[in-house]
Amino acid sequence: MNQTTRRQFIKTSAVTGLAVSTGVASLFAEKTVKPMRILILGGTGFTGPYQVRYALSRGHKVTTFNRGKTHPGELPNEVEQLIGDRNGKLDALKNRQWDVVIDNPTTLPAWVRDAAQILKGNVDRYVFISTISVYGETKTGVDETAPTEKYTGADPYQETLEAMKAGGFKTYGPLKALSEKEAEKWFPGKALIIRPGLIVGPRDETDRFTYWPVRIDRGGEVLAPGDPKDPVQFIDARDLAEWTIRMVENREAGIYNATGPAKPLGVGEMLNRIKEAEKSNATFTWADEKFLDAQKVSAWSDMPVWAGAASEAGISQTKIDKALGKGLTFRPLDVTARDTLAWFKSLPQDRQSKMRAGLTPERESEVLKAWHAKK
Predict the structure, then answer these.
(1) Range of weakest confidence among 181-190, 232-241, 313-322
(2) Is residue 70 part of a domain?
(3) Which residue of 10, 105, 187, 319 has the smallest Cβ count within 10 Å?
(4) pLDDT value for 133
(5) 25 vs 46: CA distance, rounded Å
(6) How far apart, in whole angstroms, are the C-alpha atoms of residue 271 and residue 300?
(7) What 3-state DSSP class applies to 70?
């Protein structure tokens, strides 16, 4: 994969994979402030169900708005579920009152505009879940003051998801940046913009992190990428969801990067901690990036989580001091690894045999053989 394609893939992969949770024990089980009325746009994908269950556990009233097609019937009975479509079918949102809206699935600025026009005056605050992909190319870690990408395509308000996908997601970051501005336009001083990095954990259907717990659990010689000290960043979907709800409770506004862990983590330590968590007999064979490139083994897709070249390292060194100051916390990596593996093993065998990221066993064996022959 060339550098341009790799960069686009990395930026694209910040998109949340579609899935639904079955409920988790909260790290913060105590009841909190005055109950709030929370509207969640989406709510049945990856992070949405975690938001729903955590909000309910803290005494809030939750309404979701979606098409009713993704995992229908899996949300708790206490949730009010409104059916509609962000593409012009928003009548269910009219003449209703909520304290806050959380916008999970939006990439297109027109979706923010159309929802905000209806909700303005009926909702006090707007939370937009964005992405660190708005920063574009970064050689060093960035904070929230860094410039975001500029959109240079056709009318962004005429963009569709189909057109964006057909273009290889080149416009993903710029459109997210425009969507942020749309939220701030309609809710000045009352918009909370959260920019997650790679979101991982149980129910992530992309396998972008899942590959490693699954591969290490299988044991034996494991192909490992680059230098063990190469930085990696990611956040468990449950940590992101729960922190989002706490930020809502505290009536926070502004822009926050949201990834982890709290302290720098190298890919070597990540893999070793997963190995320890699973009590695996895996051994790691570290192949340098030049060799991997020659073997057409790509960062992020074939070797998930790892960003690869120094020109891409900034995506794995995003600064999160601001979020840490507002109470962003992380469950231990071994918990995320074990829970992710357990979830994956609960899937049908056909799904388990077709991982959506990482190398197949056959391909990994070929690359390892080539590495040993080279050495």
Answers:
(1) 313-322
(2) yes
(3) 319
(4) 93
(5) 16
(6) 15
(7) coil
> Going by C-beta distance under 8 Å and a sequence separation of 6 or more, which residues neighbour residue 311?
3, 137, 139
At position 115, the amino acid (one-letter code) is: A
Alpha-carbon distance values, 178 to 15, 107, 172, 252 (Å): 16, 9, 10, 21
What predicted TM-score, i.e. pTM, was given to this entire model? 0.90
The two structure tokens encoding residue 13: 């992969």
Q: What is the rounded average pLDDT of the residues 147-165?
A: 88
Whether 21 maps to a domain, the answer reads: yes
**CA distances from residue 265 to 144, 271, 272, 288, 325 in whole angstroms, order as listed:** 21, 10, 11, 19, 19
Distance of CA 228 to the CA centre of its chain: 23
Does 370 map to a domain?
no
pLDDT tens column, 344-372 = 999 999 999 999 999 999 999 999 999 99
The identity of residue 300, as a single letter, is: W
In the block, which residue shows the tokens 């918990």? 335
Q: Residue 341: helix, strand or coil by DSSP?
A: helix
Mean pLDDT of 168-181: 91
Q: Above 50 in pLDDT, residue 291?
A: yes
- For the chain, the domain total comes to 1
**pLDDT tens for each residue of 308-317:** 875 566 889 9
- Identity of residue 125: R
Cis peptide, bond prior to residue 332, ω within 30 of zero: no
To the nearest 10°, report the CA torsion of 55, 56, 60, 65: 80
User: Residue 239, Cα to own-chain centre: how many angstroms?
Assistant: 11
Containing domain of residue 29, as a range?
A: 10-359
What CA–CA distances, in Å, run from 362 to 210, 213, 311, 369?
A: 18, 18, 30, 11
* Amino acid identity for residue 323 in this structure: A
* CATH number reported for the structural domain that contains residue 323 in this entry: 3.40.50.720
Element (H, E) at 181: helix 172-186
Amino acid at residue number 14: A
The two beta strands, 254-258 and 235-236, are unpaired
